[in-house]
Every structure is written in structure tokens, then in C-alpha cells.
Amino acid sequence: MKTMTCKQLGGACDLEFHAGSFEEMVEKSKKHGMEMFQKGDEPHLRAMKDMKALMQSPEAMQEWFAHKRKAFEALPDRTS
User: CB-based contacts of 78: which residues, under 8 Å, 6+ apart?
Assistant: First the structure.
């Protein structure tokens, strides 16, 4: 189980996500993002705007995902 924060995943807060795989981490981050979108949380809305701009370039998005995956894989695996 590894831990990353919303900020580490491109978000706006220090909420921690715990996951066994990068894909699971991304899903947890997306769910949190949707919750913050529904609440109209301004810092998260700004982060989503930045992500939307990044998504305009498939190459940039692939590079972003590769960088985040590498950061995830470099984290220590915690068992608790």
C-alpha cells in the first residue's frame, strides 16, 4: 500500500490516498476531484482547469502520467 496526496497527483490539498496500484490511486484521486467539483471548491477547480489544459495535448498528458506513475512506483510500500 502506497500513499500520495491530492497535491502530488496534481490536485489542491493534502488529503492522502492509499492504494496498492497506480490505477487505484488515480481512481481515488478522480473520485475526490468529483466531490470537490460538486462542492465548488475553488482551489480544486483551478487545479482541474490546469489539468484540462494539459489534456489538450495527448503527448503532454502521457508524459504527466508517466511522471506520476514513476513517482508512485518510487514510494515505499507500507503495510498497515
Answer: 1, 2, 3
Report yes or no on whether pTM surpasses 0.90: no
User: Residue 19 burial (CB < 10 Å; 0-12/13-18/19+)?
Assistant: middle
What is the count of structural domains for the chain? 1
Query: Residue 77 corresponds to which amino acid?
Result: D
Domain that holds residue 14: 2-74
State the Cα–Cα distance between residues 79 and 57, nearest whole angstrom.
37
The CA distance from 5 to 80, in Å, is 18
Best CA proximity match to 5, nearest among 41, 47, 49: 47
Q: Looking at the domain assignment, is residue 79 inside a domain?
A: no
- Per-residue pLDDT of 28-79, as tens digits, reads 999 999 999 999 999 999 999 999 998 899 999 999 999 999 999 999 998 7
